[in-house]
């Protein structure tokens, strides 16, 4: 990319650039005023050369636009047109003499009639002069760019404020690639040869590029704003209004393109409109996403029990898909058009266009594959995992483990775990196991069984199976025997959530247990079942048996179907039960906590006490006093003995920030205090009060050993 | 998608504030960006990291919780499972698909039911019991195995440094 080279060129400061442009413009104005101060200026200026050439180019421009419909000139065509041009030139020159004479006479007449020109007439003269004098034309163009940059800068100031580094980088990349591709387009593809046409195209693309950059910036900024729930609504408003104005401007540009297209033919119209449509699509995409985000936040802010996400999942997916595909298709056809227009002969420009085409085609293909995967997963889910019944839902009072929100509808996996439809869908698109217990999922349960049996014979080889849903080898569709792997869950990881023992799918577990028993006939079926209910995997249970973690109870008992619950508590659960308890406790806590913001009566007074006393004692005061409000909440918290009582979760973001900061300080100071008490003998350091509070300060003074 | 990720992070933040595990404080660095958190982790008791308070930074992807966050200690660390630049190498932080070290069980890896709290607890237990098989920091792994005395000395120095005490 050309970005690297251009980055090095020092760009002048905006202020200096503006001053220079304004100075240049005023210089030109002064020059043209001086030149036109004489009513007969037209005769004095060496207009013959200037105007002739400009007339000529205009005439040829018309010629070219007529030719636009045809292909680019080949050699003979070029010669012919050159001939034509020369003839035309001669014709022009002879014709020029008449208008000049006429003009002269007219002017003398005018002078005789009216000594002083009106102001309007004078201004008109200045304008004509400036549009004919090359220096003035360049100055005007420069000024136009200066204005564009100033407008951009002010929009940035008003809407965005300071740009973040990633936004700047995106902007730069986008700018240079736009310039690069449009340069290729103008000089490589449509092969413009006349100055005024180049200027027109460049003007068109400057405005388009400007809008493109703005919309890119809006997109980046929107993505950033969506990272925070506390963005003030007016900054959303500014961004949305900018997006809407970009969208309407792109509409205006489309209309302009249509007007020009009527005049200059279909090809020009398509070239011009493609970019407009692209811009409009991109902008409206961002707008739609924005609307969805705002709606989402609204819903989340009002009450967490409104299940908006579940139903909106497919809508969100399909709007994304439609926009993405539409953008890609428009871009693709635009490039294809370019290629066909330039007759597909080998040139640098065409190579670049072809590269771009390939890239776009890849993108479209990827989108298509992703969509096929999506449909497949959706289909599979509908076929294999039933919607959870009301009983299931009321029995399972937990939230959806993926989004942590309440479930009103849910899908039930074979292992008995419930998830939101859309949450499950998006997970299954990338993985094939149950998020909670890692039970491998497949098209048919029987397939699991068969697969498992195969695997038991060679337990070494397939500890790590293929874990991808995202496979397009086709064997899945042709042979209808899925590539399937049952994952090994290691029961030793204390921190992993353990599956909640359920009595669902007992037949499946019993089958698995029989298989294990075939290998270890010494172990009673009930013990194996109990372990399987926890591990949900034959391999783990086998592993547990081999490791000797499975105890045979002294009193061997016959396996009975209703023993499940009792056996779930068998001593074979070597994993930390308290962690398990804590997990379920905390997740049920999270379920309710949405409605339980603590009242925050006197945060300020709390701050005061804190600053007046030492951090340590401030903490104590806080814990013992009743500023936490609701007694019920405290009681409920106390039921988990080992968990220290937390702070409030404030609604105000600044308060939350302060509380977090304070908690960090408390943790640090407590740790420091404890450390010093413990190692008093080792450390000959000043007393506690003199230790500087902030880590950052002290760590700077430290010298490593 | 960012909306659901944001809501989930908000819920986790709420839970970690109301119901914090012992020795762990975590929350967004700034309220302007809920996808970057700082966590303070107290070194587990009875280990060479006891007493230290280790700051770490967590960066969440926009599709969280479908993809795992990235975690990086911002203080100096010397541990077999922590890279020299502070990145933490534990299986819970690896997406089920990729397997950088080539030996992890995918069951131990990321799943959307994991949470910041579980990650941080895993990190605490990783501090307590380094896994010298996955050598993120080979020097540390070797020293941990062969020269425990020296390792403990370095750990104690780091502990003092994180507390802002003279070493």
Automatic annotation (TrEMBL), chain A:
Bilayer topology annotation: Multi-pass membrane protein
Cross-referenced InterPro entries: CUE (IPR003892), TPR_SYVN1_N (IPR057992), Znf_RING (IPR001841), Znf_RING/FYVE/PHD (IPR013083)
GO MF entries: ubiquitin binding; ubiquitin protein ligase activity; zinc ion binding
CUE domain residues: 508-550
Pathway: Protein modification; protein ubiquitination
Biased composition annotated in UniProt, kind: Polar residues: 570-579
SMART domains, A to Z: CUE, RING
UniProt keyword annotation of ATP-binding present: no
Pfam families: CUE, TPR_SYVN1_N, zf-RING_2
Bilayer-crossing regions: 16-33, 175-192, 198-218, 239-263, 340-361
UniProtKB keywords: Endoplasmic reticulum, Membrane, Metal-binding, Transferase, Transmembrane, Transmembrane helix, Zinc, Zinc-finger
Domain RING-type: start-end pairs: 400-438
Record region (Disordered): 568-593, 686-705
Keyword Transferase attached: yes
E.C. numbers: 2.3.2.36
PROSITE patterns documented for this protein: CUE, ZF_RING_2
GO cellular component, one term: ubiquitin ligase complex
Gene3D superfamilies hit by this protein: DNA helicase RuvA subunit, C-terminal domain, Zinc/RING finger domain, C3HC4 (zinc finger)
Reaction catalysis annotation: [E2 ubiquitin-conjugating enzyme]-S-ubiquitinyl-L-cysteine + [acceptor protein]-L-cysteine = [E2 ubiquitin-conjugating enzyme]-L-cysteine + [acceptor protein]-S-ubiquitinyl-L-cysteine
One GO BP annotation of this record: ubiquitin-dependent protein catabolic process
Localisation: Endoplasmic reticulum membrane
Protein name (record): E3 ubiquitin-protein ligase AMFR
Automatic annotation (TrEMBL), chain B:
Top-rank lineage group of the source organism: Eukaryota
Pfam families given in the database record: UQ_con
Alphabetical keyword list: ATP-binding, Nucleotide-binding, Transferase, Ubl conjugation pathway
Enzyme Commission number(s): 2.3.2.23
GO biological process: ERAD pathway
Function: Accepts ubiquitin from the E1 complex and catalyzes its covalent attachment to other proteins. In vitro catalyzes 'Lys-48'-linked polyubiquitination. Involved in endoplasmic reticulum-associated degradation (ERAD). Required for sterol-induced ubiquitination of 3-hydroxy-3-methylglutaryl coenzyme A reductase and its subsequent proteasomal degradation.
Protein name stated in the entry: Ubiquitin-conjugating enzyme E2 G2
């Amino acid at each position: 990319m050309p970005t690297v080279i251009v980055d090095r060129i020092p760009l002048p400061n905006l202020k200096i650039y503006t001053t220079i442009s304004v100075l240049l413009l005023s210089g030109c104005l002064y020059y043209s005023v001086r030149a036109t101060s004489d009513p007969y200026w037209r005769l004095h200026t060496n207009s013959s050369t200037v105007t002739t050439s400009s007339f000529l180019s205009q005439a040829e421009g018309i010629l070219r636009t007529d030719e636009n419909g045809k292909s680019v000139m080949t050699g003979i065509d070029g010669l012919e047109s050159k001939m034509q041009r020369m003839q035309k030139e001669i014709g022009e020159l002879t014709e020029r003499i008449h208008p000049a004479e006429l003009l002269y006479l007219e002017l003398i007449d005018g002078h005789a009639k009216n000594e002083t020109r009106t102001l309007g007439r004078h201004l008109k003269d200045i304008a004509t002069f400036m549009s004919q004098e090359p220096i003035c034309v360049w100055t005007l163009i420069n000024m136009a760019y200066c204005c564009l940059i100033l407008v951009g800068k002010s929009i940035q100031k008003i809407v965005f404020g300071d740009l973040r580094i990633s936004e700047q980088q995106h902007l730069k990349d986008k700018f240079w690639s736009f310039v690069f591709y449009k340069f290729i387009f103008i000089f490589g593809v449509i092969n413009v040869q006349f100055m005024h046409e180049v200027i027109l195209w460049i003007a068109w693309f400057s405005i388009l590029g400007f809008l493109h950059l703005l919309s890119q910036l809006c997109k980046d900024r929107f993505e950033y704003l969506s990272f925070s729930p506390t963005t003030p609504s007016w900054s959303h408003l500014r961004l949305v209004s900018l997006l809407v104005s970009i969208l309407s401007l792109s509409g205006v540009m489309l209309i302009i393109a249509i007007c020009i297209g009527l005049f200059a033919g279909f090809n020009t119209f398509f070239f011009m409109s493609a970019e407009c449509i692209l811009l409009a699509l991109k902008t409206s995409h961002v707008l739609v996403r924005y609307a969805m985000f705002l709606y989402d936040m609204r819903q989340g802010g009002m009450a967490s029990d409104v299940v908006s996400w579940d139903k909106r999942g497919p809508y969100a997916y399909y709007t994304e898909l439609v926009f993405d595909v539409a953008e890609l298709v428009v871009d693709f056809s635009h490039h294809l058009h370019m290629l066909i227009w330039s007759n597909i002969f080998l040139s640098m420009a065409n190579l670049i266009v072809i590269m771009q085409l390939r890239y776009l085609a890849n993108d479209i293909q990827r989108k298509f594959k992703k969509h096929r995967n999506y449909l497949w997963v959706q289909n599979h889910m509908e076929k294999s995992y039933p919607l959870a019944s009301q009983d299931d839902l009321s029995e399972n009072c937990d939230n959806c483990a993926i989004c942590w929100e309440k479930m009103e509808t849910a899908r039930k996996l074979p292992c008995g775990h419930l998830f939101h439809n859309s949450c499950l869908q998006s997970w299954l698109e990338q993985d094939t196991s149950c998020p909670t217990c890692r039970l491998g999922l497949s098209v048919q349960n029987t397939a699991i069984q068969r697969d498992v049996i195969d695997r038991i014979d060679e337990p070494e080889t397939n500890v790590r199976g293929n874990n991808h849903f995202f496979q397009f080898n086709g064997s899945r569709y042709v042979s209808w025997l899925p590539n399937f792997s049952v994952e090994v869950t290691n029961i030793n990881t204390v921190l992993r959530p353990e599956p909640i023992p359920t009595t669902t799918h007992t037949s499946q577990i019993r089958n698995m247990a029989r298989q294990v028993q075939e290998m270890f006939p010494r172990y009673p079926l009930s013990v194996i079942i109990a372990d399987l209910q926890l591990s949900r995997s034959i391999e783990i249970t086998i592993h547990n048996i081999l490791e000797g973690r499975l105890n045979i109870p002294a009193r061997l008992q016959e396996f009975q179907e209703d023993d499940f619950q009792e056996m779930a508590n068998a001593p074979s659960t070597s994993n930390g039960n308290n962690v398990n308890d804590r997990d379920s406790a905390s997740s049920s806590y999270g379920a309710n906590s949405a409605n339980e913001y603590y009242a925050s009566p006197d945060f300020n007074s709390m701050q005061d006490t804190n600053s007046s006393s030492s951090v340590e004692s401030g903490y104590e005061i806080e814990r013992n006093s009743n500023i936490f409000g609701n007694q019920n909440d405290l009681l409920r918290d106390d039921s988990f003995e080992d968990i220290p009582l937390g702070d409030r979760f404030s609604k105000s973001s600044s308060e939350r920030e302060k509380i977090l900061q304070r908690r960090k300080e408390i943790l640090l100071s407590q740790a420091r205090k404890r450390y010093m008490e413990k190692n008093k003998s080792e450390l000959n350091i000043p007393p506690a009060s003199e230790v500087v509070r902030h880590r950052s300060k002290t760590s700077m003074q430290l010298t490593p050993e | 998608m960012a909306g659901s990720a944001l809501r989930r992070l908000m819920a986790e933040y709420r839970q970690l504030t109301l119901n914090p595990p012992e020795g762990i404080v975590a929350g967004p660095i700034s309220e302007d960006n809920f996808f970057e958190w700082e966590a303070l982790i107290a070194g587990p008791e009875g280990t060479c990291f006891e007493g230290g308070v280790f700051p770490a930074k967590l960066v969440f992807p926009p599709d969280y919780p479908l993809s795992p966050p990235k975690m990086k200690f911002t203080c100096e660390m010397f541990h077999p499972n922590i890279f020299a630049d502070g990145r933490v190498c534990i299986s819970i932080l690896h997406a089920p698909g990729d397997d950088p070290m080539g030996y992890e069980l995918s069951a131990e890896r990321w799943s959307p039911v994991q949470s910041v709290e579980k990650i941080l607890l895993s990190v605490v237990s990783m501090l307590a019991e380094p896994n010298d098989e996955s050598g993120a920091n080979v020097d540390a792994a070797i020293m941990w195995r062969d020269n425990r005395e020296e390792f403990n000395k370095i750990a104690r120095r780091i502990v003092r440094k994180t507390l802002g005490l003279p070493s």
